[in-house]
Design goal:
The radius of gyration is 11 Å and the shape is globular. It is built from 5 helices and no strands. Helix content is about 75%, strand content about 0%. It has one domain: lambda repressor-like DNA-binding domains (434 Repressor (Amino-terminal Domain), Orthogonal Bundle). Helix 1 crosses helix 5. The protein is mainly α and about 70 residues long.
Length: about 70
């Protein structure tokens, strides 16, 4: 697993939870298959640029969620 995959996985999970969405709900509204979304959250793979951009746009900015994740661990 690459560090970028794990970083995106942590961000995606945190952003989805912040949005109070289940994996199934995010899958349905984003068009990303549920199994693929689960793989992203486990860091097993990373999305294409287009799919990643779609998820980031739907769930909030990368920096906003990363800042909150950092503050939660402080």
């Amino acid at each position: 697993m690459m560090a970028e995959d794990q970083e995106f996985a942590e961000w995606l999970k945190a952003a989805r939870r912040k949005a109070k969405m289940s994996q199934r709900e995010l899958s349905e509204v984003s068009g990303v298959p549920l199994r693929t979304l689960q793989d992203y959250e486990q860091g097993r793979c990373s999305p294409s640029f287009t799919r990643g951009f779609t998820l980031v746009a739907m769930l909030g900015t990368w920096f906003e969620v990363k800042r909150e994740m950092t503050n939660d661990h402080a």
